Amino acid sequence: MTDSAAEKQFPVNLSVNGTTKPVTVPARRLLSDALRHDLELTGTHVGCEHGVCGACTVLVDGVPVRSCLMFAVQAEGHQITTVEGLAGTDGQLHPVQEAFRDCHALQCGFCTPGFLTTIAAALEGYEPGTTISDDEAREIVGGNLCRCTGYQNIVKAVGRAQEIRTQRAGLTPDVAANADTT
Q1: What number of other Cβ atoms are within 10 A of residue 14's Cβ?
Q2: For residues 85 and 62, what is the distance between their CA atoms, to the nearest angstrom?
Q3: What is the mean pLDDT of residues 103-110?
Q4: How does 132-156 read in b/e, with b if 16+ C-beta sit within 10 Å?
Q5: CATH (one of 3.10.20.600, 1.10.150.120, 3.40.50.970, 3.20.20.70) for 95-174
Q6: Dihedral of CA 89/93/96/97: which sign?
Q7: What predicted TM-score, i.e. pTM, was given to this entire model?
Q8: Contact 128/157 with Cβ under 8 angstroms?
Q9: How far is residue 161's CA from residue 124's CA, in Å, rounded to a whole number?
């Protein structure tokens, strides 16, 4: 049967942004759709629906995953972080969010959630105080597509995010003066 009303439904507990949320979904419900439609977390955007563009990227156990290629039932037992979960519980922006703002690294914003989650995960592989080269930044964002920015400010934002992480770790007195404010 192809009628979705007749499809077998499965109860799933999704651990999203530190909170477990029960949903009942058909086996073929994509994680992106469960996040957006069942949990009303609309920060995860769906672009190509083929895993190519990266707009739907979320973190599953800290690893970037294209949520349009993963079924919601597969996510049970895993920790999912969406763009809504990047900021601290105190409301402080994640270093990547702050860096995107500082470096004017977005225009229309459609691809931004995927870039933010991808970069946030990549930065975990670098110790605060480590410099990320432009080539490394390009490698980090190479799997995400943006039709507006030309990527230059996104690349700058990767380095800026690392500066902010360094500053927050207390390793540099003030890197805020180095932000591109043009």
Answers
A1: 25
A2: 12
A3: 93
A4: beeebbeebbebbbbeebebebbbb
A5: 1.10.150.120
A6: positive
A7: 0.89
A8: no
A9: 11
